[in-house]
Amino acid sequence: MISVLTVDGIEEELSILHADLKNIAAKETEDYWNYFCFSNISDMEKFLENQPLIDMACIDITLDGALERLAEYRSKYMDNGLLLITDTSMSPLLYLKPGIKADSLLMRPLEESVVNSTLKEFVRSFLETSSQNNQNRRYVIECQEGKIQVPYKDIYYFEAREKKVFLRTLKEEFGFYTTIEELTTSLPDEFLRCHRSYIVNSEKIVRIMISQNVIQLHHEMEVPLSRSYKPEFKKFGR
Question: 0.70 cut: is pTM over it?
Answer without folding.
Answer: no
